[in-house]
Amino acid sequence: MSERAPEPVTAAANPPLQPLASNLLPSDVVKASATSNVPAPERQLTPVAKLIDVSKCIGCKACQSACIEWNDTHPDLEENVGVYENPHDLTADMFTLMRFTEYENPVTNEFEWLIRKDGCMHCADPGCLKACPAPGAIVQYSNGIVDFISDNCIGCGYCIAGCPFNIPRISKTAHVSKKCTLCSDRVAVGQGPACAKACPTKAISFGTKEDMVTLANERVEDLKSRGYDHAGLYDPQGVGGTHVMYVLHHADQPSLYSGLPEDPQISPVVRGWKGPAKTVGLAVAGLAAAGAVLHGIFARPNEVTAHEEGEAEELVEDRNRPQGGREA
Amino acid sequence: MADKRIYSAPGDRIETKHPVTVNRYRGYTRLNHWVTAACMIVLLISGLSFFHPSLFFLTGLFGGGQTTRWLHPIVGLILVASFLLLFAQMWKLNLPRREDVEWSRKFGDLLQGNEESLPELGKYNAGQKMVFWGMSGLIVVLVTTGIMIWEQYFPDLVSIPVRRIAVAVHSLAALFTILIFIVHVYAAIWTRGTIRAMTRGTVTGGWAFRHHRKWLRELAGRQGSDPSK
Question: What are the tens digits of pLDDT across the range A208-225?
Answer without folding.
Answer: 999 999 999 999 999 999
